[in-house]
């Protein structure tokens, strides 16, 4: 089968023939329809410091996908051949304290699809049945392919109650855009999102943000005044990993404000801890998705009318992966999807 492979410990990826994986007991073989390009995939392509420490070549990359079930191994129930599915890309041990307590997203032995084991940028992928999410309601395969980052957005956005609240999102990348759509759909009063890319801010307006603010030109304080806010934001969703953005968010939270942090900084940085303490701000770190409460929430949000189509701005055939990766790395658009059936 064709697969996109990190063949050697060096920059670049190669589309090449590899052996089709086989599904064993408790596993599912999936024919891949679409895949989404993630920042993780860009790191692996570029072979940066993180990739050199985390990945062993050769490796089939990728962890965001939709597909059709081609075969189920013995012992698999509730999943049928032909089902449209997505996959949870974090594979857990099942035996640690958190796994046994049903908190699988907190497993300390998590293995990442397309990082610690062969991924989904291929014609076929195998996953444990426990990691397969069957779409019971109709969903476009392009949208199903981005359920992984959509789950990050939902997990972050729904960490705190949103109804009637004023929400600040720092970072209008694909996950920030989806978080803005979720926050507005879930009943937030005002949703403000910041970035320095006018293209991404335009996308934020399309998905429902009340104010898309270019922080290279305006401050968050000015944004508050435009909306008539006098006491700061109730909920913050930090999606950028940018130190300045994080500090600006903390400076604009109300007393008792709550911040969910998904953005991953590249290095340590200082924040005003005195303000965090005296303003009684709650900070919660977010990694991945809750299995599978987040997945259920994603499905019902789409059934309830949430529209993510503006978030996908690039569609390419798998053979065009180089152009697709370049667009994803450009930092000006939304999600980029590869079609493995074209």
UniProtKB/TrEMBL annotation:
Subcellular location: Cytoplasm
Keywords (A to Z) from UniProt: Cytoplasm, Metal-binding, NAD, Oxidoreductase, Zinc
SUPFAM superfamilies referenced in this protein's UniProt entry, alphabetically: GroES-like, NAD(P)-binding Rossmann-fold domains
GO molecular function: L-threonine 3-dehydrogenase activity; zinc ion binding
PROSITE patterns attached to this UniProt entry: ADH_ZINC (PS00059)
Binding site for NAD(+): 175, 195, 200, 262-264, 286-287
Gene Ontology cellular component annotations, sorted alphabetically: cytoplasm
Main location: cytoplasm
One of the GO BP terms on file: L-threonine catabolic process to glycine
Cofactor: Zn(2+)
Annotated site, Important for catalytic activity for the proton relay mechanism but does not participate directly in the coordination of zinc atom, chain positions: 148
Sequence ranges assigned to domain Alcohol dehydrogenase-like N-terminal in this UniProt record: 24-133
Binding site for Zn(2+) 2: 93, 96, 99, 107
Domain of life from the UniProt record: Bacteria
Binding site for Zn(2+) 1: 38, 63-64
UniProt keyword annotation of Ligase present: no
Subunit and interaction comment: Homotetramer.
Purpose of the protein: Catalyzes the oxidation of 2-deoxy-scyllo-inosamine (DOIA) with NAD(+) or NADP(+), forming 3-amino-2,3-dideoxy-scyllo-inosose (amino-DOI).
Family: Belongs to the zinc-containing alcohol dehydrogenase family. DOIA dehydrogenase subfamily.
Protein name as annotated: L-threonine 3-dehydrogenase
Organism of provenance: Streptomyces tsukubensis
């Amino acid at each position: 089968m064709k697969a996109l492979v990190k063949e050697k410990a060096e920059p670049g990826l190669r589309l090449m023939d590899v052996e089709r994986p086989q599904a064993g007991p408790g596993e599912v073989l999936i024919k891949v329809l679409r895949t989404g390009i993630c920042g993780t995939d860009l790191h692996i392509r570029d072979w940066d410091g993180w990739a050199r420490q985390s990945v062993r070549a050769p490796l089939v990359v990728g962890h965001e996908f939709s597909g059709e079930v081609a075969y189920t191994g013995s012992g698999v129930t509730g999943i049928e051949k032909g089902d449209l599915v997505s996959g949870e890309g974090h594979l857990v041990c099942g035996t640690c304290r958190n796994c046994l307590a049903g908190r699988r997203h907190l497993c300390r032995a998590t293995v990442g699809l397309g990082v610690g084991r062969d991924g989904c940028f291929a014609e076929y992928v195998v996953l444990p049945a426990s990691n397969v999410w069957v779409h019971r309601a109709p969903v476009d395969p392009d949208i199903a392919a981005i359920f992984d980052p959509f789950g990050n957005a939902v997990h972050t956005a729904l960490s705190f109650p949103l109804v009637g609240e004023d929400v600040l999102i720092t970072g209008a990348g694909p996950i920030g855009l989806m978080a803005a759509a979720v926050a507005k759909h879930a009943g937030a009063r005002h949703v403000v999102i910041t970035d320095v890319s006018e293209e991404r801010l335009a996308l934020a307006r399309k998905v429902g943000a009340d104010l898309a603010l270019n922080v290279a030109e305006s401050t968050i304080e000015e944004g508050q005044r435009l909306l008539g806010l006098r006491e700061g934001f109730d909920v913050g969703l930090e999606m950028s990993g940018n130190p300045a953005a994080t500090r600006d968010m903390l400076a604009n939270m109300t007393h008792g404000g709550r911040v969910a942090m998904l953005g991953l900084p590249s290095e340590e940085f200082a924040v005003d801890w005195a303000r965090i303490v005296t303003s009684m701000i709650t900070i919660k770190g977010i990694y991945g998705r809750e299995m599978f409460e987040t997945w259920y929430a994603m499905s019902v949000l789409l059934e309830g009318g949430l529209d993510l189509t503006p978030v996908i701005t690039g569609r390419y055939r798998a053979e065009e992966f180089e152009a697709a990766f370049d667009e994803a790395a450009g930092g000006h658009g939304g999600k980029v999807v590869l079609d493995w059936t074209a």
